Amino acid sequence: MRRAWILGLLVTFLVGMGGPGIGPAYAQTKKRITVMYMRHWVPAADDAVQKRAEEWGAKNGVEVQFDKIAEKDFDFKITTAVENKTGPDIAMFRSSTPILFQDALVDVSDVAKALIAKHGEFYPANKAQTFTGKAWVAIPWYTIFPTWMYRIDLLNKANLKVPDTYEEVPVVAKAVANPAQGLYGFGIALSRSRDGILFTQSVLWAFGMKMASEDGKTVTFNSPQTLAGLKYIVDLAKVMPPGVTGWDDSSNNTAWLAGKLAMTTNAPSIYYQTKTQNPELAANTGHAIWPKGPAGRPVMMDTYSLGIMKFSPNQELAKDLLRYLTTEEGYTNFYMAGQGFQCPTLATFTKLSVFDDPKLKPVIETLPFGRTSGWPGPVTRAAAEVEAQGVMTDMVQRVLVDKLTPEKALDEATNRMKAIYAK
After folding, report:
1. Contact, 189 vs 198, CB < 8 A?
2. Do 95 and 175 lie in a common domain?
3. What is the pLDDT of residue 121?
């Protein structure tokens, strides 16, 4: 009896120590990597990333916890993780947040440089949102930006072409609109939503707005060009549906699917939705390069990137997983699963067959026009903070909702920017 008890203890000891012929105890030896990932429009693409991460985990004896977070909750969760220095090993970041959180992120320049050596440079806007000027703090994963969308059937019926200039937009919008039947020529969120921020800043740039000097140190926002762009947006609101100042990022998608808009701006998510929910509408949904203004066709784009948290106890393992996700096979599987919704950050992947769809050609052609907060200067922490606080969309709302004059709203927004830059 005593001999059996001693033998049992010995077996338990050997199992715990990984003794001869006995595998180590799972709970004692297996490491875990947690990935915080923003859930987006195409579930198959998210699933492809999770599958590849778990595949890496199985090969390396690492448990991978892949947390898909709803877009509306993501910014709060990642900010909380950074502030509390606890949470995921790898996280997704949107837009300029890697610059904002650069002190909390691991230098992944070796991963970025290897990708550049193989595939060429990242698009400038993608680089600007992930490279501090000294180090890559995140790896550009995919790009989302609004393309100009139009109803082919409605414009054809009115014998009109898609607008090539901002001047033509309200003309075309008024010609095809029928508000009495619930059809509006153009519609986009004019709120502190992602759609609102992208649209507002793109238009202001096209009229010549420069938020700051090219060294990124001095606010230059208050200019005749910015004022002209603001007045344009205010006037354009007159051809939009009532309530756009309260729209969120899903509002124009919903309005488009309901046949209430002739034009809008959006990522290809609307096209993806129409293909699955309304094929007839998909056939009449067209994409075009953005209209041009006096200063060109700049379009604000969002880089969705992957970074490693400095508080991670498994930084080298996390970096190895990051390399595995961003191999040629990893990028390819992801973009193909995304059906064209997620745009590449490296030009080489625009040649994938998923982007052969003629409807997506203008989407790919818009990539070189991508710009980021702070442009034509660098993406600084101040520029990222101006974007995060929705200063420009608030300026538009101050005119449309609070009835300030454009001049007064511009002065107010400029003062807010100067306070942010002064910090």
Report:
1. no
2. no
3. 97
d(CA 101, CA 57): 27
Instruction: Quote the CA–CA distance of 122 and 120 in Å, as a whole number.
Output: 7
Confidence band of 423 (pLDDT split at 50, 70, 90): confident
DSSP H helices, 207-359, are 224-236, 251-257, 269-277, 279-283, 315-325, 328-337
* CATH number for 99: 3.40.190.10
Structure tokens at 288: 């075009």
Tell whether 409 and 341 lie within a shared domain.
no
Q: What pTM, to 2 d.p., does this model score?
A: 0.86
Q: What domain count does the chain have?
A: 2
Write out the residue range of the structural domain in which residue 313 sits: 12-17+23-144+301-369
Share in percent of the chain as helix, strand, coil (round to 5): 55, 15, 30
At 36, is the secondary structure helix, strand, or coil?
A: strand
β pairing state of 90-94 and 302-308:
antiparallel
The DSSP letter of residue 359 is G
Of 196, 225, 221, give the one whose Cα is nearest residue 211: 221
Inside any domain, residue 5: no
Q: Are the beta carbons of 62 and 30 closer than 8 angstroms?
A: yes
List the helix and strand counts (H, then E) for the chain.
Answer: 20, 10
| pLDDT for 29 | 56
- Please check the confidence at residue 267 and state whether its pLDDT lies above 70: yes
User: What backbone phi and psi angles, to 5 degrees, belong to 353?
Assistant: -60, -25
Tell me: do 157 and 293 sit in the same domain: yes
Instruction: Give Cβ neighbours of residue 177 (< 8 Å, ≥ 6 apart).
Output: 183, 184, 185, 239, 262
Q: Is 31 found in the same domain as 74? A: yes
User: How is 168-235 classified by DSSP, letter by letter?
Assistant: HHHHHHHHH-BGGGTBBS-----SSSHHHHHHHHHHHHHTT--SB-TTS-SB---SHHHHHHHHHHHH
